[in-house]
């Protein structure tokens, strides 16, 4: 097979494949760093930009890639894979996608290596740049920071897709035929994010800037090979602790089974921390009630997507001031939808003057969400859930704002997770805590305006008649004005 | 030769038209631009480097990658702006199509002007919807973002078929294949045209205008 290929061509081809593999890894990892990537075009060729593309080389990433390759090249049966996963501050992790650079046996003997193959590899890298911004993990990675980080792992050999859960999708980035085989680049990504509703990843720290650092990091077998897609800081260890989703999901399931409001309140109360202000106490307290098994992958949609209202049950009641602080302190989560956030603070309802300390929820308090046009919303916005009485609504709910987007994009096939972040009028009203129906009934028959009502007893006919001559005199005086007015009407 | 033609369809809200068009057109141009060619004496050439940039959309939950070239961006924005204006000036129907055509010039003898032979045409059909409330707009943000993602995947899939591309030209022919007027990148020769569909469904085409313009311009 290689007889047809000249030694120089073979050497070139190997070099191209090697650098293509390294650049592929760079593009993928850089796309998951959580920030926008920008590089400049240069009209004068420097000779060091492989495939005529300005792709930076992060040394650590190159090092990891070379280590994984260990001197070999991707070939038939030897694929190079980049696995992207998400790790929360509690140590839970979940594989999001796996990018595979593979080679199959279909050869294209006639193709010119130094020219056509090179240009097609360049085109494939451009396609990779475009596709890396399209898969669901991109949005998640742009919002990483406090609550979770994105990790990557490079391995060589057989492709392992089992960790992506059921129903994962595959997108092919492209393929390039070479004389020794066809290079294919594809991505398999998880669609089932049911285990952890992504909203919880946007929850900000529950308190006043205290960093909870005594959470136990659960050891995961692959963690040793995992690397953070974050070169600004070691994001992982900064994780602020807060009750895991397991608690809230448990609350979810139990409270939704019967008449929700009372259940909800009582179960929420059970999570009130013993000492307000002691967020660190709160965390372990909540953890104790966690069912460790719920941390497993594939905890599925039997539990409706973690209603944000229940997240807040686990948050410390010191929430009030904390939320505002933690909201502002959320800077590290590179939250793109600032527009959303401002929308949130502005639009709380048609006539609400929201006190700054009180945080209103989004997905929680939509009593009429069930009647919203999209049936999809009814799952997450339990119509029976009332706004919380105590202002312990926590920032996790804010988080829901940001995560809505990501979940929506991820939940393509999962109807459960199309969460829409909107605030219809009357949804939450701090001044008049009532729902739309009550409001309507109450104000359906307002009293008449006093200026419009004729109070018979106050005025008699005689008085009317007496005032007539005066009125007539005035009108006669202004007769010209009236005439002019009539003229304009004609 | 046969001209390859691809059609993409999107439904967007009025304020999303610009960004949706930019996203798709830039994605296509990313794949159809190279670095600047520098011809050397022996007839060989070297190619400059193309940089890329991530652009976040304001009205759509989407990020796209474009070539780092302000000149190219300006040209595309101008064309999209004209399209958007034409769309809003048309009837309430809000349907139109913007086409990105890649062509090669073929020199003809005097008095005939050069021919423009298209080899790839991308048509993006746009349907502008009006939304009633904020809730719908929010849903639209996300849905359009997903749709654009699907379109990008479609574009990439077509590109990866590696069908006809013009041969790399010699120095004298480079202007027949590439647009060499930009200083930092070199896209294949392209033109952007649009058509607005009025409410009767007939297309008020700019084709005649384009034909005349081309004949005169060359």
TrEMBL record, chain A:
It is found in: Cytoplasm, Cytosol; Preautophagosomal structure. One of its GO terms (cellular component) is cytosol. The keyword Cytoplasm applies. Keywords: Autophagy, Cytoplasm. Residues 293-338, 378-410 are annotated as: Disordered. The keyword Mitochondrion does not apply. Residues 391-410 have a biased composition (Polar residues). Residues 329-338 have a biased composition (Basic and acidic residues). GO terms for biological process: mitophagy; piecemeal microautophagy of the nucleus; protein localization to phagophore assembly site; regulation of autophagy; regulation of cell population proliferation. PANTHER family: AUTOPHAGY-RELATED PROTEIN 13, PTHR13430. This is Autophagy-related protein 13. It comes from Scleropages formosus (Asian bonytongue).
From TrEMBL, chain B:
It is found in: Preautophagosomal structure. GO terms for cellular component: Atg1/ULK1 kinase complex; phagophore assembly site. Keywords: Autophagy. It comes from the Eukaryota. One of its GO terms (molecular function) is protein kinase binding. Transmembrane segments: none annotated. Its main location: other. One of its GO terms (biological process) is autophagosome assembly. Pfam families: ATG101. Belongs to the ATG101 family. PANTHER family: AUTOPHAGY-RELATED PROTEIN 101. This is Autophagy-related protein 101. The gene is ATG101.
């Amino acid at each position: 097979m290689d007889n047809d290929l000249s030694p120089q061509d073979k050497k070139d081809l190997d070099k191209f494949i090697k650098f293509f593999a390294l650049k592929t890894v760079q593009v993928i990892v850089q796309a998951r760093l959580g920030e926008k990537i920008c590089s400049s075009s240069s009209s004068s060729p420097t000779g060091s930009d492989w495939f005529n593309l300005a792709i930076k080389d992060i040394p650590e990433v190159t090092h990891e890639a070379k280590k994984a390759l260990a001197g070999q090249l991707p070939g038939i049966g030897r694929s190079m894979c980049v696995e992207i996963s998400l790790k929360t501050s509690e140590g839970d992790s979940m594989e999001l996608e796996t990018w595979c650079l593979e080679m199959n046996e279909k050869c294209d003997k006639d193709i010119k290596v130094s020219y056509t193959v090179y240009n097609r590899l360049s085109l494939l890298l451009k396609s990779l740049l475009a596709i890396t911004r399209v898969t669901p993990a991109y949005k998640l990675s742009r919002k990483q920071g406090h609550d979770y980080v994105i990790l990557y792992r490079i391995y060589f050999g057989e492709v392992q897709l089992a960790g992506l859960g059921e129903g994962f999708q595959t997108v092919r980035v492209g393929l390039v035929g070479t004389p020794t085989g066809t290079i294919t680049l594809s991505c398999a990504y998880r669609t089932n994010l049911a285990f952890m509703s992504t909203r919880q990843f946007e929850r900000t720290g529950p308190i006043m800037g205290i960093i909870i650092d005594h959470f136990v990091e659960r050891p995961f077998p692959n963690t040793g090979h995992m690397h953070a897609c974050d070169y600004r800081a070691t994001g992982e260890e900064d994780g602020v602790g807060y009750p895991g989703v397991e608690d809230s999901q448990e609350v979810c399931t139990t409270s939704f089974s019967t008449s929700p409001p009372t259940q909800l309140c009582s179960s929420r109360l059970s999570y009130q921390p013993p000492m307000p202000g002691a967020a660190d106490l709160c965390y372990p307290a909540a953890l104790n009630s966690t069912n460790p098994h719920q941390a497993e992958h594939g905890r599925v949609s039997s539990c409706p997507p973690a209603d944000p209202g229940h997240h807040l049950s686990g948050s410390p009641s010191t929430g009030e001031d904390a939320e505002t602080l933690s909201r502002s302190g959320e800077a590290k989560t590179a939250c793109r939808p600032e527009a959303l956030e401002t929308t949130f603070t502005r639009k709380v309802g048609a006539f609400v003057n929201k006190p700054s300390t009180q945080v209103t929820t989004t997905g929680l308090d939509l009593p009429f969400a069930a009647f919203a046009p999209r049936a999809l919303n009814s799952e997450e916005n339990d119509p029976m859930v009332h706004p919380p009485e105590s202002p312990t609504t926590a920032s996790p709910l804010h988080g829901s704002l940001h995560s809505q987007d990501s979940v929506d994009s991820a939940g393509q096939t999962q109807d459960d997770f199309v969460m829409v972040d909107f605030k219809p009028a009357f949804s939450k009203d701090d001044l008049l805590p009532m729902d739309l129906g009550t409001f309507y009934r109450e104000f359906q028959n307002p009293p008449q305006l006093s200026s419009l009502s004729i109070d018979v007893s106050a005025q008699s006919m005689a008085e009317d008649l007496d005032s007539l001559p005066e009125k007539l005199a005035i009108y006669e005086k202004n007769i010209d004005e009236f005439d002019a007015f009539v003229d304009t009407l004609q | 030769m046969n001209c390859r033609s691809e059609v993409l369809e999107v439904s967007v809200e009025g304020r999303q038209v610009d960004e949706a068009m930019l996203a798709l057109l830039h994605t296509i141009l990313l794949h159809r631009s190279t670095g600047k060619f520098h011809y050397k004496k022996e007839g060989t050439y070297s190619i400059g480097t193309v940089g890329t940039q991530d652009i976040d959309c304001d009205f759509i939950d989407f990020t796209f990658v474009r070539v780092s070239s302000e000149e190219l961006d300006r040209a595309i924005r101008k064309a999209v702006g004209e399209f958007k204006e034409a769309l809003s000036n048309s009837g309430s129907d809000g349907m139109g199509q913007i086409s990105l055509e890649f062509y090669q010039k073929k020199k003809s003898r005097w008095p005939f002007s050069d021919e423009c032979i298209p080899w790839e045409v991308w048509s993006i059909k746009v349907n502008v919807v009006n939304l009633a409330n904020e809730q719908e707009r929010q849903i639209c943000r996300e849905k359009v973002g997903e749709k654009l993602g699907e379109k990008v995947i479609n574009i990439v899939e077509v590109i990866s078929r590696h069908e006809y591309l013009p041969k790399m030209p010699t120095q004298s022919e480079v202007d027949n294949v590439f647009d060499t007027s930009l200083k930092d990148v070199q896209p294949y020769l392209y033109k952007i045209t649009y058509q607005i569909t009025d409410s009767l469904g007939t297309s008020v085409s700019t084709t005649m205008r384009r034909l005349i313009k081309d004949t005169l311009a060359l």
